[in-house]
Automatic annotation (TrEMBL):
Residues 5-165 form the Glycosyltransferase 2-like domain. Gene3D superfamilies: Spore Coat Polysaccharide Biosynthesis Protein SpsA, Chain A. This is Glycosyltransferase. Its EC number is 2.4.-.-. SUPFAM superfamilies: Nucleotide-diphospho-sugar transferases. It comes from the Bacteria. One of its GO terms (molecular function) is glycosyltransferase activity. It is an enzyme of class 2 (transferase).
Length: 322
């Protein structure tokens, strides 16, 4: 039986990690390597991991100094021996037949990556229409096109062949690591599948390793992922470079809009955003923008005060409604 390595970054989740571990232990597919990476937890999460490892030889616990989600996942990848790899966040849990079902699909349809859906969105509500069992199969070209347009983003919603992971690693010290990484995994694949079946139970935990405050540095990390994606499209002469340019402009403008609405953090990151617009703006930049962002982009460098006032008024209106 092929070995599946399940990588679980762990940070301050003592109330949730046991349920996560047990949902993996109890899988109907049992040939698993469960890698728990304790990323410097300050609570009892690391001890809980050790307790489970003491009676299940499939569990390997790695304790490291806090380095963030990317560092924890990368450590797990380096330690993994499996033919297949999957990521589970330690405050979430999974359905019991996930790996049996996904491995069967990978083999039956000769896939390198299979994506499944989740039972909860970030608001905690059940996602409607995500469990009808519909299966889509994508060629390398179609899958990469979708990935470059913000599909296949979450690392945790997939089972990967080891070859799809390859030598791609998550960017250490940055937030929005999935945006910077997921399209590269898809680029390593020849065939990718997506099944509308819910196996993953997403739980919002503000203290976990996967949550982030949307500060100035985080917003810049968000923008960087789109710049790297555009650069990849240009380097590989992909036919949707213009779309990637427009998505980058959307990310930059959303960053600037947030800053104008409620200035926070180090302004140097927002100055970098302005420089990025100056570097990449062209006629294609407007392609995928809504009318508001098209207006903001057109006025950039001409009458920035319009963007500032518009962002501030929008923010104040939301505050009144809430």
């Amino acid at each position: 039986m092929e070995l599946i390595s399940v990588i679980v970054p762990v940070y301050n989740v003592e109330s949730y990690v046991a349920e996560c571990i047990e949902s993996i232990q109890n899988q109907t597919y049992m040939n698993l390597e469960i890698i728990l990476v304790d990323d410097g937890s300050k609570d009892t999460s690391g001890d809980i991991c050790d307790q489970y490892a003491a009676y299940d030889e499939r569990i390997k616990v790695i304790h490291q100094e806090n380095g963030g989600l990317s560092a924890a996942r990368n450590m797990g990848i380096e330690a993994a021996n499996g033919d297949y790899i999957s990521f589970v966040d330690s405050d979430d849990y999974i359905g019991l037949t996930l790996f049996e079902d996904m491995l069967q699909l990978l083999k039956e349809y000769d896939l390198d990556i299979i994506e499944f859906t989740a039972f909860r969105d970030k608001s905690g509500d059940i996602i409607e229409g995500c469990n009808d069992g519909h299966l889509d199969i994508y060629s390398k070209e179609d899958a990469l096109r979708l990935a470059m347009h913000d599909c296949f983003v979450a690392a945790w919603s997939k089972l990967y062949k080891r070859s799809a992971i390859g030598d791609v690693r998550f960017p250490v010290g940055r937030k929005f690591e999935d945006t910077a990484t997921s399209y590269l995994y898809v680029a390593n694949a020849n065939r990718v599948g997506h099944i509308n079946r819910c196996y993953y139970y997403y739980r919002l935990n503000p203290n976990s390793i996967t949550q982030t405050s949307f500060d100035a540095k985080s917003r810049w990390d968000f923008v960087l992922g789109y710049e790297e994606r555009l650069q990849y499209a240009m380097d590989h002469q992909l036919p949707y470079v213009d779309d990637c340019n427009s998505l980058l402009m959307k990310a930059v403008l959303s960053c600037l809009t947030a800053y104008y609405a409620k200035p926070m953090g180090n302004q140097v990151y927002y100055d970098k955003c302005k420089k990025m617009i100056e570097t990449y703006r062209n006629e294609a930049s407007y392609k995928l923008l809504n009318s508001k962002y098209k207006l903001f982009l057109w006025f950039f460098g001409r009458a920035d005060w319009i963007h500032k006032i518009g962002a501030r008024l929008s923010y104040l209106a939301k505050q009144v409604r809430s």
